[in-house]
Write a structure and sequence with these properties.
By secondary structure, the protein is α/β, with parallel strands linked by helices. Helices cover 28% and strands 18% of the residues. Helix 7 packs across helix 8. The longest helix has 18 residues.
């Protein structure tokens, strides 16, 4: 199922058969999306950090109200069984080694005041994250490094669309051995914990149920996106999450053909991952330069500097670029044309 090119009135910066990337204010762009049309909003907004970042971040005292504006809009755009997944990094209070509660205040406010349900809380462990904050970890040696992000899975109802069998993980070596000869490893009975271990425990279901602790290293180093940025001398987005993170929730909470939206797209990892998984997608990003370089995620490797620069310049000049289903170098130069 192709993406409906007329779902928004605003022309996109670039588009494919499955989705479109828009440069602009997310609140304004959200108004153009039909109510009840989006299956999943997967995003990572600017975190409420004490040190200002170039991509923009709000003070902790104003953060909850600021993010709630988007939460209200998103809820209207979701299908009844849709989901809103938000990745939020932790932070410390200003000047002291005590944690901020801003990410938990977001959770409480969304559920108490905006009408969301917390379907489940997830925690993303990034083993490659550098020790931070410097003051409390590196200098004074008062705290352990902060390597966990909170991820809130919100839903409009208590029964959002979800299928955990789509995100099974590989069995442990011990479980693989057990599956070869279950009778040698356990006897069906009720455990002291109350769990009733039946014969079905030894059935091979194709993988293990994942936990709500997601471990993905954020160590992208040689992607087409980074290569493209380096080739044309443009700075990469400084706060990207790994594609494995949106991939998990896209597979878990959507089906091919569903619409996935990222309202703080940055380098558009979510859109590129949705495209790979056969989902329709929409992305919003206010910084046109980030939008321009994010297009590199949708083209084949091996494009030369002239082709990459031509694509980037067309996007930031306001032309609407068709990336196209086939992105082979032989089809360059890219053609800018009206969207729709």
């Amino acid at each position: 199922m192709k993406f409906n090119k007329e779902i928004l009135k605003t022309n996109p910066a670039y588009f494919t058969d499955l989705g479109a990337a828009y440069a602009g204010d997310s609140l304004k762009l959200l108004n153009e999306i039909p109510d009840g049309s989006v299956q999943l909003v997967m995003t990572s907004p600017p975190f409420s950090l004490q040190r200002k970042k170039e991509y923009g971040n709000k003070e902790q005292w104003e953060y909850v109200d600021w993010l709630s504006q988007f939460g209200k809009q998103v809820r209207n755009k979701l299908k009844d069984d849709g989901s809103f997944v938000i990745d939020l990094g932790g932070a410390y209070r200003k000047g002291i080694p005590a944690r901020s509660l801003y990410n938990f205040r977001v959770l409480i406010n969304f559920c108490d005041n905006l009408g969301y349900f917390l379907a489940e809380d997830f925690y993303w462990f990034n083993p490659s994250k550098l020790p931070s904050p410097i003051e409390w970890v590196n200098k004074r040696k008062l705290r352990a490094k902060d390597s966990i992000n909170t991820i809130w899975w919100f839903s409009k109802t208590e029964w959002p669309k979800a299928d955990v069998s789509n995100v099974l993980t590989e069995y442990s070596e011990r479980m693989k051995t057990l599956l070869k000869n279950p009778d040698s490893f356990y006897k069906p009975k009720k455990r002291p914990s109350g769990h009733d271990i039946s014969k079905s425990f030894g059935k091979n279901n194709g993988g293990a149920i994942p936990s709500n602790l997601l471990q993905y290293a954020n160590s992208e180093s040689n992607s087409q996106y980074l290569t493209g940025c380096n080739v044309i001398g443009k700075k990469q987005h400084p706060a990207r999450f790994p594609s494995k993170l949106p991939e998990f929730f896209i597979k878990f909470l959507t089906e091919p053909g569903d619409i996935v939206l990222d309202i703080f797209a940055g380098s558009n990892t979510t859109g590129a991952t949705a495209e790979k998984e056969g989902r329709r997608w929409i992305s919003f990003e206010e910084n046109i330069e980030y939008v321009g370089t994010s297009s590199f995620r949708f083209i084949d490797k091996g494009l030369d500097e002239k082709a990459l620069r031509d694509l980037y310049e067309k996007i930031i000049s306001g032309q609407s670029v068709d990336i196209g289903e086939n992105r082979a170098q032989s089809q360059l130069p890219f053609q800018a044309k009206a969207f729709g």
